[in-house]
From TrEMBL:
Keyword Cell membrane: no
Organism whose genome encodes this protein: Azospirillum isscasi
Name of the protein this chain belongs to: Glycosyltransferase
Enzyme Commission number(s) of this protein: 2.4.-.-
Assigned keywords, A-Z: Glycosyltransferase, Transferase
SUPFAM superfamilies: UDP-Glycosyltransferase/glycogen phosphorylase
């Protein structure tokens, strides 16, 4: 749960300018975070202006035309990314594109502020703590975040994933360490009065002189229509296989290796379970081959892509989410699972370990434990849910209740409380 903010009267007339690179309705991940944050503010009575990417204009205006949002056309200013970087698959070019777009925003924001001062300017970034932003200091309260990316995976859990994962983590950890001394990032965070961080690990990565300005908030929020109503006891009946779901990009750090090996061990212990793995990515073939080697291919369904309605239907027909990510700062897939009454089996790393408690799932301890011990903990959680369906039903109710902590209605003007000097 987010750390509490200092109470102050919620001023419904608060004017807020959101600088949101990712602000796409009816989508997932980062874009959903930006859109839901803005919707929450708008529905709470704030006067909200949004600066976002030009490519999102058609989808946003269609949403407005259908009357499916509190926003109006005049609430948006669209800025295109540099043409030479607008369409590419390179991660480096994407990062440069993002930084160039943020720089373009500064001149636009300065002009907007000149015409109409705002109480708050909030850079809702792409969520990475290692990316600069340039609109700090242009309003009485300048806010950035929520940012994450300072989370690190324990080395005993990285080693079984192979040399590529080890090399990638070494580079990533070096980049995290550079955040404290990067002059552009030091200047970025110095200009903001309030810094939202997704986890306390990311707070520790901030330059020492700026950590006092940090507040913990996951940045994820769920719109009312994403909550599934709690139904009468409709869980899988005793004796039927437990239906598990894994969803996300097929990247080594998302934990597909641990999901599959834990399922294999749970089946060895007598559990009846089936796993649907939804997604695609670099590890797709590797994980399929792993399922074959473990002898569990008949218990695993690989699904490359689903539309949002089909995904929600699949999620709601499952029994639990199995998502052993190694360093997600705040996984939307976990919040959607909770909103749809799905208990979650995860690792106590990054944001997952804060989101999930013993009432609504299992956050398996990792620190100081070998990979085999962690796999055993995940397997035990699967066995427990399979063999104790009463507990599964209780966790389902608790998951739905826990999701209320992440509802978009909690995004109100009161959340913009400046950090003490």
């Amino acid at each position: 749960m987010s750390a509490p903010f200092t109470d102050r009267p919620a001023d419904a007339g608060t004017s807020i300018l959101l600088v949101a690179f990712a602000f796409e309705p009816d989508s997932g991940s980062e874009s959903a975070n930006g859109w839901n944050w803005g919707e929450g503010l708008k529905r709470s009575g704030c006067r909200v202006k949004v600066v976002t990417q030009g490519r999102l204009r058609p989808k946003i205006l269609r949403k407005i035309d259908r009357g499916e949002t509190a926003f109006e056309p005049d609430d948006f200013v669209f800025i295109d990314r540099p043409d030479t970087m607008a369409h590419h698959d390179s991660k480096t070019l994407f990062q440069l594109s993002y930084i160039a777009w943020q720089w373009r925003c500064r001149a636009v924001v300065k002009e907007l502020v000149r015409r109409q001062p705002f109480d708050v300017i909030h850079n809702v970034t792409i969520g990475g703590i290692r990316f600069p932003a340039f609109c700090g200091g242009l309003a009485p309260l300048s806010v950035i975040g929520p940012v994450g990316g300072g989370e690190r995976a324990p080395w005993p859990l990285i080693r079984p994933l192979g040399w590529k994962a080890i090399a990638t983590e070494l580079v990533r950890n070096a980049a995290i360490g550079m955040t404290r001394i990067d002059p552009f990032l030091r200047l970025t965070y110095r200009r903001y009065n309030l810094i939202y961080v997704k986890t306390f690990e990311s707070r520790h990565v901030l330059p020492a002189g700026d950590r006092h300005k940090a507040r913990q908030h996951f940045g994820c929020s769920i719109l009312p229509d994403r909550f599934a109503p709690m139904k009468a006891e409709n869980r899988t009946s005793t004796g039927a296989p437990l239906k598990l779901l894994f969803s996300g990009r097929f990247l080594y750090w998302k934990g597909g290796y641990y999901a599959l090996t834990a399922l294999a061990k749970a089946l060895e212990k007598g559990a009846r379970a089936r796993l649907q793995m939804i997604g695609s990515g670099p590890q797709s073939e590797e994980w399929r081959n792993l399922a074959d080697r473990l002898g569990i291919a008949e218990h695993v369904d690989f699904i490359e892509w689903l539309s949002q309605p089909d995904y929600l239907e699949t999620l709601r027909s499952s029994d639990a989410l199995l998502f052993p990510s190694l360093h997600d700062s705040a996984a939307n897939v976990i919040m959607e699972a909770l909103a749809n009454a799905q208990p979650v089996i995860c690792l106590d790393l990054g944001g997952s370990g804060i989101m999930i408690d013993s009432s609504c799932g299992f956050a398996v301890p990792c620190r100081g434990r070998a990979a085999e011990e962690v796999i055993g903990g995940l397997a035990d959680a699967i066995v427990t849910l399979d063999q104790d369906r009463a507990r599964l039903r209780a966790m389902s109710r608790a998951a739905h209740e826990r999701a209320q902590d992440f509802a978009s209605c909690r995004i109100t003007p009161a959340i913009y409380t400046p950090a003490p000097a």
